[in-house]
Please model this.
Amino acid sequence: MVTSLRRTAVGLLLTCTAFLITGCSITAAGLIPPEVPRSTSPIDKSVKVMPVEGGRGSTFGREAYITNEQYFEALHHTISESGVFSSVVDSGNADMELHSEIITITTESGLSPTYAIVMQYWLVDTASGDEVWRRGINTRHQVMWNDHLAGATRIIKAVEGATHKNLLRLTEYLEEAEL
Amino acid sequence: MRRCCALAVFLLWSSVLSADETGSLADIEVITVLPILVSESLEIESPSELHDEITKMLLRELAMKGYVLDKPRNWAVPEYWTAAGVRERPYSELVANLPARAEHVALLFVEDLKDSTIIVASKAESRVGAVILETKTGSVIWEKESEGSYRENLNLMTGLIHMMITPDRYFALEKAFKKLFEDFPEKPF
Model:
C-alpha cells in the first residue's frame, strides 16, 4: 500500500511538472494584444514590417526573453489590426519600412515579478532611404503573486503584458507622428 | 486665522515648486548616453569597453525605472571630448555639439580610480559623476557624484599569485555608477 501511494505521488508530481513545463513558455500568440484599437487618422502610406532584431530565446536560469520571430508576428498583427497605415505589404515594395530592435527585456524578480521591455522602432522612407521617424519605447508590467499559482506563468504574463503595452504605445506614437 | 492662511499659501507654493523641479525629470522618456569621460590622470585600458559595460548595466537599471537609454546617432565626437575638455566649457556651449535629435543627454564622468593589493586582499575604489542635460537649452536637469568600491579577500595559500592580478577596476566603476542612479526617480507605470 505504501509503495502504491508513493507511485501515485511520484506520478502526480511528474504530471504537474510536465504540465508546468509545457504550459509555461512564451508564444507569439501570447504577445499579441487582446484588443487593438483602430486608428482614427491613418497615415496615408503603405508599410512593410521588417524582421525584428535583438531577440533571443529564453534560457534556463536567466530572465525570460522573446525571439525575433515571436516579436515580429505580434508586431505585424498589431500594425495590421490598428490600420495606422493605409496598408501593410508583405512582399514587394512599400512606401515605408518599419524596423524594430529589442534593446532589452529585464526584470525585477520576486513573487510579483515586473518585466520591462525597451524597444527601438524606426521608419525608413523607401524612396529616399532616409530614416524619417524613430522612437524608443519602454513599457513595464507587473503580475501580482496571487494572479497565478505558478511562478513561471506569472513571469510569462509579465512579459506578455509589457509587450502588449509596448505595441499599443507604438500605434499611438505612430498616429501622432507627422508623416 | 491670517497665520493659518499664510501657512497654507506657503505650503501650497512650496509643493508647486517641488512638483516643477521633479516634474522636468519625470517628463524625460529617452536619455542619450554619450561616450564616457575619463579624468586625464587615470589610465583606462579600453575606454570604449568600459563605456559598453557601464551602459549595459545602466540600460537594465533605468529600464526598470521606465526610461529608454539610447546611443548617439549621426554624431561625431568633438575633438575636446575629455573630462577636462567638457568641464571647462559652459553647458550652453556644449549644446552646439550635442546629437541633434537627442532631447536629453547623459554625461558620465570617471573622476578617480584607485586599486591596491595586499597579501590577503585586493580592492578598487572609484569616484564617478553624471549630468543630464536638456539639449535644447543646455540646462542641467540632474547631476550627482558617487563612490564605489570592490574588495576581494584572497586565500592565504594563493595570495602570492593573486598579488600579480589587478582587482576588477571596472566592477568598482560599475558599482559606483549603479549607486549613482539608485535614487533616480522611477516613472509611474
